[in-house]
Design goal:
CATH topology of the largest domain: Signal recognition particle alu RNA binding heterodimer, srp9/1
Shape: globular
CATH architecture of the largest domain: 2-Layer Sandwich
Pfam family, one: Glyoxalase_6
InterPro entries: Glyas_Bleomycin-R_OHBP_Dase, Glyoxalase_6, VOC_core
Distance between the termini: 33 Å
Helix content: 10-25%
Protein name: VOC family protein
């Protein structure tokens, strides 16, 4: 038996809106859209995909993490060639840059619905 990662799923109060952000950021294609579920994929690869499901009670994590608060359970790491340019582009699309940045060659950001993601340079 072989196990393969099919997709990573983000819970959000508005799946179509968050999918639009990541579609623009990643340049991926939309393959399925409903009010409660949207699925994206790389234009040249079927898997893994990135999906968005309705979670009306979504609570964004606290960063940096602190005891007794909503903890980050997962995040996306996105490799880029130009860290400053891609950080500015992500912010122009609706992301926000976090104040706490633990590494010089990585940028921690939040998508428009509060999920944390990192942009990083090759080798980081």
């Amino acid at each position: 038996m072989t196990t393969t990662l099919g997709a990573f799923v983000l819970g959000t109060p508005d799946p179509p809106a968050l999918a639009d952000f990541y579609r623009a950021l990643l340049g991926w294609q939309e393959v399925d859209r409903e009010p409660r579920w949207v699925r994206l994929r790389h234009p040249e690869r079927e898997r893994p995909g990135l999906s968005f499901q309705l979670e009306t009670d979504h609570t964004p994590p606290v960063w940096p993490q602190r005891p007794g608060t909503q903890q980050m359970q997962a995040h996306l790491d996105l490799q880029v060639d130009d860290l400053e340019a891609e950080t500015a582009r992500a912010c122009a699309l609706g992301a926000t840059l976090e104040d706490h940045q633990p590494q010089k060659d990585v940028r921690v950001l939040r998508d428009p619905h509060g999920h944390l993601f990192c942009l990083f340079l090759p080798g980081a």
